[in-house]
Amino acid sequence: MKRLYAAIAVVLAVFVSAAVLSAQTDAAEGDGMLIDMGNGVTYWTAATGSDAVEMAEQFAKSHGLEFQKDGSHIARIGEMAEHSVGTQSCGWQLYKWSGSEWTPSTDTSRSSGSIAWGFYPEGTIPVETPEFRSAWTQFRGDSSNSGVSDSYGTEKAVTPVEWYKTYRTGYVDSSLIVAGDLLYHTTYGESTASGSRSHAQLYCLNRLTADMVWIFDLTTGGGKYPEVKDNGYNITSPVIIGDMIVINSATSHSKDGKTVMDLYLLNRFTGEMIDTEEILHAPPLNDRGMPVWTGRTFVNGGTSPVYDSGALYFGTSDGRVLSYSVSHDGLELLWEYVPPSDVVDGKYIGTRGSFYYFSPTIADIDGVRMLFIGNYEGYVIALDASTGESIWEKQCIALYEKNKGVPKTPGAVDLITYIGGNRLVVTCTDGAMSPTMGHIVCIDAKTGGGSGGSDCYWRTDGVTQGTVMVDGGDFIIYAKKASSPSIDTDPAIKEDGLYRLDKDGNTKWYVTSNYIWSRMTVAAGLLYYSEYSAGFYDDGGHVVAKRVADGSTVWSAKLEPYSKVSYSMAAPTVIEGKIYTANDYGAVYCISEIEGKKWDGGGEIILPGGFWHWSWALLIALAVAAVIVLVRYY
Prior knowledge:
There is one protein chain. Helix content is 8%, strand content 39%. By secondary structure, it is mainly beta. Strands 1, 2, 6, 7, 8 and 9 form a 6-stranded mixed beta sheet that branches. Strands 19, 20, 21, 22, 23 and 24 form a 6-stranded antiparallel beta sheet that branches. It is globular and about 70 Å long. The protein has 3 helices and 51 strands. Strand 28 and strand 29 form a beta hairpin.
């Protein structure tokens, strides 16, 4: 009997060891130095020196980054120089790797081990580690909405995909946020024919094994709203800040006769709530109780936040821009900007409008950290990100009576991408969920205009999507010909497909493609995107990798499982040879060079608390079989 117990113990030990090993990755070779710009942009290099300041200076100069120091104090690396946002100061902090975590340090000497310089407030730590040297911490990877990953994908993707996970809590429309071996995303929340409602959730799972780590209920606010009477669905993306994660929940609640949404601050390793802030929805109203503006209004609104220079930034559904500090002490409002909402002779002349879904873009413009955000009144609003003061405001689309998608509204400013050289690429639509009218315009980030006092650098008609930066000010977009023009120019967009344009709007290459409504991601010379639907279009639903240089296809992998409503709005996240994506089937997928389980056509709907990856079931089956054999023969 002792031999039996010993044998069973060995089997279970093997089972546990297999589970543990499945969560491990190859450790990075050698000690490293991390330069973390505090906005999603990071650099790694070998750590070989004995003085942390000298090492940072050598690295900065070798990469053409401006560097300023005062003895052992670093004042500037690149565009990031110590300054304040509201009452909060941000500067360059030194960290040393303890073997398991980053530890703040004032001792710049180094004998061995990895170090990091991070542009953060005191008390905030870098996300990347010597073992996991890439992360995707916010909506488009960084605060400038570049869509560029400093990691790599693969040229040899295989199907069936490495793993997939399906949910019964609605669509997955958020970006897939990654740090270390953890992946975070939201689900939409879903209504049924009977009127019952599944709750919107924020999930954390191990991205290497697909095991669930924790779940936070966005509909109830982790229990804050026990009597659930919420409105709307969650499509916002979370943002990681050190060992914390923030989500601007898009589910709204009625409280004391007012409509509120919540900003949640959680421990990103445990899901425990650190703090919450109620965000009031109170647009300016006319005497009929309706918003005074002419654009669309969203109650399940607010944008995905971005993090930059020690502060969190986002827009609200009632047309304000907010900035918060984020720490273990909680959330604190740093500044609030409320655009004007004036009405003259019954006509709305204000610039305030509903902000929804699309995060702000932040860039350094002649030494000023500027914030750009678009609203459903058709305006781009440019602010000083440190103070919240208005610099300029420009209406980039004004359809009104021409608008066929959402009649009599001006349209909406979609994604704003900074392409360098003080230029912004702004995509505009009619404001409909499936737009048929729109255009793209390039404007000066400093003035909102163009060269020589003109209105813009260039503008072209067409419905565009997925703007992502590439080399030298070029960018790639998906575009389709509009059903009717929104501007009176000769459109450059004459065929549906992918375009690589230069900073002056000239086409470098064009290739045909299926319909795309997700953002796109660039990593190591490849462009990754998800086609809109796996079921609605017979040949749709692939994740595709193309070469940035010429648009040629490297591979195309059909996402399975899927259904006729597997629309994809989520951009692929590309980290260390793996591509993570999601769609409205309510599924998250991992694509890599590892072949996974083939879908049987029936889906794999797993409820919370169950087994979340097929490999666990296989391991358990093997363990049970082994125990039966041992019982029989011992």
